[in-house]
C-alpha cells in the first residue's frame, strides 16, 4: 500500500535514525501523550529517552559530541515526534535553534563550552525575542543591555518563552546601544546574550526571574513562561559571537531553520489526524455501512491525504535547500505557511469525521484540535510568512521594463 509522507533518496543512516525515532514514538509517546497532556505534565521520561537516543544533539557537529546530521534528518525526526505529541517537538525545537545559532555564530570558546553539553542534553536551550508588547515586530524590542565594565546589565521583560522554566541556557535578544550611534537602524543595534540559569521558577539567577507557567489552551506539558530581567549582569564573553549589534540577524537565521521545524510539526500533527480519521471512518457505521463508504467522507479523506502529501513535499524541499547551502527563506516561509494551514484543516476534518466523539476528551483528536492553532502563530504568523514570501517573489521576479 502507498503510505503517505514517504521521503525518497534517504541514506541508510537517515533511514535507521528515522526508524528508531518512529519506533520510540509508537511505543513511548503515543500511548501516554493524551493522558500527560490532560494533566499538563512535563514528559520527563520521554525527554530522558530522547536524550539517550541522541536527539538533542542531532544537528550538533560530531567534533562537539553530536550526530552531525542534516536539517532534513532533523526535520523528519521532528515530524515523527509531532505525530506522537506536538509538545515534545516543542521541547526539542528551541534547544535546536539555540544550538544552531551557536554553531553558526558562536565564538570558538562558546561552541566548545556549550555544544558538548547541549549534545548530551545536559544544557537545554530556550530562545527569547518576544515581549509583552511585541511578537511579529521584533525591531520594537525595548529590553536593553548597558555596558558596565567587563559586563552588561540587562533590564526588561520577555514573554512567551517555550521551555522558559526547564531550560538552563536562554538566548535573549535585547537592544544594546553601546557602539551604535543615535539613529542606527533598530535591527543593527540588537545583541543576543547567552544567559545561563538554573532550571525552575522564581529567581533563577540574581536579577533574573521566571515567574511561572502560562496557562495555555493546548501545547501543554511543555512550559511557556515570561522572563524578567532586573539588573541582570552578563559577562561580555557571553555576547553571541563576541560582537554586539548582530543579534537580529543571528536570531532571524535561527528562526529560519525553526520555520522548517514548525512546518515539520504541522506535517506530523496532520499525519496523526489523518490516521485517526481514516481509522474511525472504517469503524463507525451510519445508515447501514461504515461512514468511510459514504462518498462525502471519502472525499474528506482524499483531501486530507493530499494536504499531508503536499505539506510533506514542501517541508522536505525547504530542508534540502538549506542543507545544500543555499538561501531558503522563500521555501521555508512557504512550507511553514502551507503546512500550518493544512494541519489546521486536516485536524478539523478528522474532528468532523469523529462526529460528537471528537468533542470528548477520551478521543485523541480533541487534543490535536487544541494543538494545531499554535502552529499558525509560532515562528511567525501566516501574515508574516506571506510578507516574507511576497518580498522574495518581488526580488526574483523584478519587473525589467
Ligand atoms: C505557545 C507559544 C510559544 C511561543 N514561544 C516563543 C519562544 O519560545 N520565543 C519567542 O521569542 N516567542 C515565542 N512565542 C511568541 C510568538 O513568536 C508570537 O506570539 C508571534 O510571533 C506573534 O506575535 P504576537 O503574539 O505579538 O502577535 P502580533 O505581532 O501582535 O500580531 C497580531 C496579529 O496581527 C498580525 N500582524 C502583525 N503585523 C502585521 C503586518 N505587518 N501585516 C499584517 N498583519 C500583521 C499578525 O499576523 C497577527 O494575526 C510563542 C508564542 C506562543 C503562543
UniProtKB/TrEMBL annotation:
Q: Give the E.C. number(s).
A: 1.-.-.-
Q: Which UniProt keywords apply?
A: FAD, Flavoprotein, Oxidoreductase
Q: Where is the Acyl-CoA dehydrogenase/oxidase N-terminal domain?
A: 11-122
Which parts of the sequence belong to the Acyl-CoA dehydrogenase/oxidase C-terminal domain? 245-394
Instruction: Give the Gene Ontology MF terms in alphabetical order.
Output: oxidoreductase activity
Q: Which residues form the Acyl-CoA oxidase/dehydrogenase middle domain?
A: 126-230
Keyword Flavoprotein included in the entry's annotation? yes
Q: According to its UniProt record, which cofactors does this protein need?
A: FAD
User: Which family would the database say this protein is a member of?
Assistant: Belongs to the acyl-CoA dehydrogenase family.
What's the name of the protein? Acyl-CoA dehydrogenase family protein
Q: Which organism is it from?
A: Streptomyces omiyaensis
UniProt lineage: Bacteria, Bacillati, Actinomycetota, Actinomycetes, Kitasatosporales
